[in-house]
Amino acid sequence: MPMTTDTRFAGGAAAALFGLSALLAGTAAQAQDCANRGQLDGMYCDANEDLVADTPSDPSKLSNPDTLVFAYTPVEDPAIYEDIWEPFIAHLEDVTGKDVQFFAVQSNSAEVEAMRSGRLHIAGFSTGPTPFAVNLAGAVPFAIMGSEDGRFGYKLQVYTRKDSGINEMGDLKGKRIAHTSPTSNSGNLAPRALFPGLGVVPEQDYEVVYSGSHDQSMLGVVAGDYDAAPVASEVVDRMAERDLYDLEEVKIVWESDPFPTTSYTYAHDLDPALVEKIKEAFFSFDFAGTALGEEFSGVSKFVPVTYQKDWAVIREIQKANGVEYTPQGLAKE
């Protein structure tokens, strides 16, 4: 699983949640007339129905700060990541002609609140919190770390032994299927959200057995302890690289569209000319030989994404699990 997918709150989350709630209440009266808003907060509009906040049409409401503030998703040791991001920040400064300040956020709520209040201009939001940033803070996702050929993220894959007799999702009925743990996104929540649409309802159509991890699920399938298992592609790929199982013994019966990792976003009210410079900086940055490239192995560049298309599977999973895009919903991420 990507490090950013299951990021939890660090210290100060309660205070940040209170601050975001107060900020939302304080700006409710500023809601503009808008033909379409969708799930966006009242201070934003989505006239073109691309699910993200529109750029203000009034030039006086555009932001073009002398210093850009950049934040990466909350991590255990922000100081280390400030050093890791230093080569990229230098590149961002060169391309935009702006000073850039790294902002070490302590929680997902604090990061969302900072962008909503105008104190944060460019940010990496974790997979799950991204829809909250879009709807509560006017964040516009535009980039993600990917490989040279443009691929990014990971997939949910259902593995079984080649001799299991399972050839399609309907064949899981009546079987013993390994999920990883109750809180795992790709190992449990995503299957529960996505499989019913494929004609298979976990617990109802097959027995769910918690293995404890993606590794254990895969090894259990190989050993015959489980009939099949939904697992994260990046985990089983690493296992294959370490020869922990024989590729000839297993097969994939279904896989999802790619699940995105951290989204890189800009604040919706940035001047469009500045946004183009920011995008240029991201898409021209070379990971090779940098601390960033060493930290995030398997990626070589930023690739373009859209929230509407590339976060569709995340929105579907969150909807199925009753997630609401409110400060209180964000606190559960």
TrEMBL record:
UniProtKB keywords: Signal
Signal peptide: 1-31
Family classification: Belongs to the phosphate/phosphite/phosphonate binding protein family.
PANTHER family: PHOSPHONATES-BINDING PERIPLASMIC PROTEIN
Stated name of the protein: Phosphate/phosphite/phosphonate ABC transporter substrate-binding protein
Source organism of the structure: Nitratireductor aquimarinus
